[in-house]
């Protein structure tokens, strides 16, 4: 890359900063799933919901949702009707609670409704199923996790996800294509196995609630590039109301969670290639913290940060990686600064790709600006020549530039 110095000496040895805390899921004291409550901490779980599921847990004028919240000591916040997981018709439900057991209790209520809708679907559904698996008696749950959670969920050598599959007769699929630091998860299992498997996955997710990035991740339920914001109020009725579930929607069905919108941005191809390559790494390596550094011209730093830090904040939200520009060290080239990226392997390289995209877009913008200015100067010169020719034809003296007089 232009102006950047890369090489083995610039890519530091990966350092594992913390062990996976999901290695022994289900252990610990207090609450369902073996989680201990921490005062003042908010826990969260994100569920992908077809519209019939939203209708089911909302109820008439939100009455069912209110009952679930009161009984489970949790808060249910669902995305707006026009806000879906990219490439699907699935809305995002976030279950919040001050205690991990409240999140699990809320999840069990959602799973109960998935089972009810699945039973109805098996008898009447004509299109692609939304709530059932291929085998009789299987039900399907979909959620989203952060890229950092994915490594812990998989476990060393895939031990965690293997245990979930074997102990619950479950099929667990983790999408390899990240969206703003999120990856979708699909679990297919019999009713009891589904309840147990989702409780185990929630156990793993809530282990990350102590992390600095968790509150911001938990606040995102809109994937248009901005966080929807976390509703800290636990009282009063939300404005969200139960959408009408028409028979036409039931007959037509909804697009499946795995279907992706067509991407025209070549950057998306690069990011998907990075994700595909990372999927071939040993599972335990994806959960480790890596550090990547590179040097770049100091005058480029402001462009990578963006106005009021907008660009670097957006990249942090999307990947979950830590991004830091180190000041020039004494005795080094003052025209160079180091960019340091830290986080899980996939987050690091995704962050680097997005930062380099901004780097070259800034170059192209400057080039377009210079070309535009050159074109304006050329047109201005042509205009001056035409004016001189017109004066010559009319017999008028040409102006003396800079003096306001005529020759």
From TrEMBL:
InterPro entries (alphabetical): KH_dom, KH_dom_type_1, KH_dom_type_1_sf
Pfam families: KH_1
Alphabetical list of PROSITE patterns matching this protein: KH_TYPE_1
Coiled-coil segments: 362-396
Basic and acidic residues biased stretches: 234-247
Sequence ranges assigned to domain K Homology in this UniProt record: 41-115, 133-206, 288-360
GO molecular function: RNA binding
Keywords, sorted A to Z: Coiled coil, Repeat, RNA-binding
Record-given protein name: K Homology domain-containing protein
Organism: Noctiluca scintillans (Sea sparkle)
């Amino acid at each position: 890359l232009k102006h950047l110095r890369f090489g083995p000496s610039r890519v530091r040895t990966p350092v594992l900063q913390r062990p996976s805390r999901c290695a022994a899921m289900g252990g610990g004291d207090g609450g369902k799933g073996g989680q201990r409550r921490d005062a003042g901490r908010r826990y969260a779980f994100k569920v992908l919901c077809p519209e019939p599921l939203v209708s089911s847990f909302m109820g008439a004028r939100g009455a069912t949702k209110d009952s679930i919240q009161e009984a489970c000591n949790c808060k249910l916040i669902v995305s707006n009707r026009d806000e879906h997981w990219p490439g699907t018709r699935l809305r995002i439900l976030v279950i919040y609670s001050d205690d991990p057991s409240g999140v699990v209790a809320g999840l069990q209520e959602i799973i109960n409704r998935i089972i009810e809708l699945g039973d109805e679907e098996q008898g009447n559904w004509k299109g692609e199923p939304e709530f059932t698996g291929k085998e009789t008696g299987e039900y399907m749950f979909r959620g989203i996790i952060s890229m950092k959670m994915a490594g812990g969920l998989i476990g060393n050598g895939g031990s965690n996800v293997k245990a979930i599959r074997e102990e619950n007769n479950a099929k667990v699929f983790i999408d390899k294509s990240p969206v703003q630091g999120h990856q979708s998860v699909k679990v297919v299992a019999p009713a009891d196995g589904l309840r147990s498997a989702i409780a185990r996955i929630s156990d793993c997710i809530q282990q990350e609630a102590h992390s600095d990035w968790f509150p911001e991740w938990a606040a995102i339920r809109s994937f248009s590039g901005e966080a929807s914001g976390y509703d800290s109020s636990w009282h009063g009725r939300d404005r969200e109301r139960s959408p009408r579930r028409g028979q036409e929607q039931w007959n037509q069905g909804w697009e499946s969670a795995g279907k992706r919108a067509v991407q025209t941005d070549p950057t998306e191809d690069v990011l998907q290639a990075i994700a595909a390559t990372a999927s071939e790494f040993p599972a335990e390596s994806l959960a480790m913290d890596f550090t990547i550094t590179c040097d770049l011209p100091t005058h480029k730093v402001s462009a990578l940060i963006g106005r009021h830090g907008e660009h670097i904040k957006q990249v942090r939200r999307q990947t979950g990686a830590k991004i830091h520009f180190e000041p020039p060290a004494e005795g080094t080239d003052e025209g160079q600064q180091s960019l340091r990226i830290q986080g899980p392997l996939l987050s690091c390289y995704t962050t680097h790709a997005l930062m380099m995209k901004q780097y070259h877009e800034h170059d192209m913008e400057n080039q377009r600006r210079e070309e535009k200015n050159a074109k304006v100067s050329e047109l201005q010169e042509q205009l001056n020549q035409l004016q001189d020719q017109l004066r010559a034809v009319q017999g008028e003296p040409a102006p003396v530039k800079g003096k306001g007089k005529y020759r």
